[in-house]
Design goal:
By secondary structure, this protein is mostly beta strands. It is about 10% helix and about 50% strand. The protein has a single domain, classed as Jelly Rolls, CATH 2.60.120. It contains 3 helices and 26 strands. A 7-stranded antiparallel beta sheet has the order 1-22-19-24-17-14-13, with no helix packed on it. A 7-stranded antiparallel beta sheet has the order 2-3-4-11-6-9-12. A 4-stranded antiparallel beta sheet has the order 5-10-7-8. The termini are far apart. About 45% of the residues are buried. The structure holds manganese (II) ion. Manganese (II) ion binds near residues 65 and 109.
Length: about 290
């Protein structure tokens, strides 16, 4: 099998606030070369790099807002996130956990720092991804998967470290998240100098985000923490190695493109303008349900 080469290594753009609780660097779709089509089915990636929030009696976050046509996946690396949606889904996820919300035909939700965590404050670090749905599933029923770290298979790589599988699989070990289309999502947690090999179909859109440490990819190119590595759609295998100075954590995503028209508008991602108009009408007429602010 051929080596999957790097297309670009992207440094984080200046951060902006989503609500008052998420200070994020947007990578998808804002970076040139990383539009929704290029990374389909991963149509949005916001990264809250390590940021210290002071304690607050009123939890910071984002108030009630709608989504339709995709899934929101939140991976907490540090800090705690609380979530409620109009379909009755919700919960608290902490360090190492993942919440996987399928908005599909539509939910209202709100996303906040967890109340007790917010009182103390601390270092907050998380990723939010939007995973697109195929046309046939965009109007399916909303659902919610709370994935605790303990539920994720840890694939032991001996002295190299381990790979924690969220969705899809690594070396035959499956992750707990159920997905609508074939995709892989995992954290490589490598010890100093530790190495892991990955193997995905050439046509899957594949990328890595360096959460901790610095890595060497394919033995040649270096990517520092908070940098995003986009791979070419050629070749299947690549290696990631933690540099000698410190341990590394790397989020790896790889998915089969859905290859349908993508028509985004704000919190809705559909296949056509007509479907976006319908989403606004349904939202304005209360079809997304009710959620208290
Ligand atoms: Mn949201």
């Amino acid at each position: 099998m051929a080596t999957k080469k790097i297309e670009i290594v992207v440094s984080p753009r200046p951060a902006h606030f989503v609500g008052d609780g998420f200070r994020v660097h947007n990578f998808i779709p804002g970076i040139p070369g990383l539009d929704m089509k290029r990374m389909d089915p991963f149509i949005m990636l916001d990264y809250n790099s390590k940021f210290h929030f002071n304690g607050s009696d009123r939890p910071r976050g984002v108030g009630v807002h709608p989504h339709r046509g995709f899934e929101t996946v939140t991976i907490a690396y540090s800090g705690k996130v609380e979530h409620h949606d109009s379909a009755g889904g919700g919960g608290i996820i902490g360090e190492g956990d993942v919440q996987w919300m399928t908005a599909a035909k539509g939910v209202l939700h709100k996303e906040y720092h967890e109340t007790e965590w917010a009182k103390e404050g601390g270092i907050f670090q998380m990723v939010q991804l939007w995973v697109n749905l195929p046309a046939k599933d965009k109007m399916s029923c909303p659902k919610y998967q709370a994935i605790e770290n303990a539920a994720m298979e840890k694939v032991d790589l001996g002295e190299n470290g381990y790979v924690e599988v969220i969705a899809g699989e690594y070396n035959g070990h499956k992750g707990p998240a159920s997905t609508f289309t074939p995709l892989h999502m995992m954290n490589a947690k490598l010890k100093t100098g530790g190495k892991a090999e990955f193997n995905f179909p050439a046509h899957f859109n594949t990328a890595a985000l360096v959460i901790e440490g610095s890595i060497i990819i394919n033995g040649e190119e270096t990517a520092k923490s908070d940098h995003f590595v986009l791979f070419k759609n050629e070749g299947e295998t690549f290696t990631i190695e933690a540099k000698e100075e410190e341990d590394a954590v790397v989020l790896i995503i790889s998915g089969e493109p859905i290859n349908e028209p993508i028509y985004p508008h704000g919190p809705f991602v559909m296949n056509s303008r007509e479907e976006i108009m319908q989403a606004f009408e349904d939202f304005n007429t209360g079809k997304f349900g009710y959620l208290e602010d």
